[in-house]
Design brief:
This protein has 379 residues and is of the alpha/beta class. The chain has 11 helices and 14 strands. The chain binds pyridoxal-5'-phosphate.
Length: 379
């Protein structure tokens, strides 16, 4: 198989798996136990906390492990608002991941007003629009660093500066950006920041929330005192250990891996565009994650393309959710104002450091064959 769906999840790195193995076997202590086995587990968790913190230049104290990016987003948004209940507006973008969109949706049912900053046809956010929309009633801003469907990277430094100048807490979803672009919380004024392990060759079901010093946040679960009371429950020790190693590897290899992925992504895009004249690239190609391209094949359904690709050994994805037999265009492409006809044929290809040049060559051939065949059927 040729796996070009790395924004969904990535292959675990061998180093990560090796580091996790003892904690799924003989090292099964509970980090809260005072005995030696407990302390071995505690030390492993704290080492991983330091590894993750180092990647974003944070103090390890400010890293709270969670069950993934979704939980980190939920904890940040619901927990921040619970801690300051007097203000009733949330500023966000219409292209956030569903973890953020649905958390805001839940708050809307409790009487909060959601202010969506508009995105343009290239999926960009203008910090001036954030400035216009933010006001004294804004309790929280939640803006992603990079979009999971298009790869578009937002001018988060400028957005964060605007939000900070109004004294409003800012949550940044860095799930897709982490490991691909430098993130430094010392120079990025934010309150919380969501991370996930399985997008960076770590295990699934583990993530983290960076919580800035002094940030006001309420835990959303009740139970023990783990993770500074913000995330009670016995820690997923093996997962956390894997996350630590994955983060350290990602940061160490970031520049080299980014160059590799950019080259291959650009080759894939150019190859497909040269062969399939109707294909278009969606999103701002001048500010984009190194590994992502969202290409649309107007007039052809993404689902049919994905099935065709899968039959020939290529894994990709569409931004569309298939519900009750009808393809709903992605909320991201809809917010960008992409015609439904184009959006229905949008395919996301997302590479990893493991993607090879020969896989890309093969993928260009396969995509061309599949799209030409489907086009001839619908002609
Ligand atoms: N935020 C973004 C931007 C994502 O792409 C994802 C996963 O696709 C998430 C949050 C959720 O992360 P997790 O799968 O770890 O819950």
């Amino acid at each position: 198989m040729i796996y070009l769906d790395n924004n969904s999840t990535t292959r675990m790195a061998d180093e990560v798996f090796d580091a996790m193995r003892p904690f799924m076997g003989e090292q099964y202590g509970n980090p809260s136990s005072l005995h030696l086995m407990g302390q071995t587990a505690r030390n492993a968790v704290e080492r991983a906390r330091a590894q993750v913190a180092a990647c974003i230049n944070a103090n390890p104290r400010n890293i709270i492990f969670t069950s993934g990016g979704t939980e980190a987003d939920n904890l940040a948004i619901l927990g921040t608002l619970e801690a300051q209940p007097s203000k009733r507006r949330i500023l966000t973008t219409p292209v956030e991941h569903v973890a953020v969109r649905q958390a805001c949706g839940k708050l809307a049912t409790r009487g909060y007003v959601i202010d969506d900053v508009r995105v343009d046809r290239l999926g960009r956010v203008d910090p001036a629009d954030v400035e216009r929309l933010i006001n004294d009633e804004t309790a929280l801003a939640a803006v992603m660093f990079a979009n999971n469907e298009t790869g578009v990277v937002f001018p988060i430094d400028r957005i964060a500066a605007v939000v900070a100048s109004r004294g409003v807490p800012l949550h940044i979803d860095t799930v897709q950006a982490f490991g691909k672009v430098p993130i430094n919380v010392q120079s990025l004024p934010c309150t919380t920041l969501a991370l996930s392990a399985h997008k960076i060759h770590g295990p699934k079901g583990v993530g983290a929330l960076y919580v800035a010093p002094g940030a006001r946040l309420r835990g959303q679960l009740v139970g023990g005192h783990q993770e500074r009371d913000l995330r009670p429950g016995t820690e997923n020790v093996a997962g956390i250990v894997g996350f630590g190693v994955a983060a350290e590897l990602a940061e160490r290899q970031r520049e080299e891996a980014s160059e590799h992925m950019t080259q291959l992504r650009d080759a894939l895009e150019a190859g497909i565009l040269a062969q399939v004249k109707s294909a278009v690239v969606l999103g701002d190609t001048s500010s984009r994650l190194c590994n992502t391209t969202n290409m649309a094949f107007p007039g052809i359904d993404a689902e049919a393309i994905l099935i065709g690709l899968s039959q020939k050994g290529v894994c990709a994805s569409s931004g569309s959710a298939c519900s009750s037999g009808s393809l709903e265009p992605s909320h991201v492409l809809q917010a960008m104002g992409i015609d439904a006809e184009v959006a229905r044929g949008a395919i996301r290809f997302s590479l990893s450091k493991f993607t090879t040049a020969s896989e890309i060559e093969m993928s260009i051939t396969v995509v061309t064959e599949v799209v030409r065949k489907l086009a001839s059927l619908t002609a």
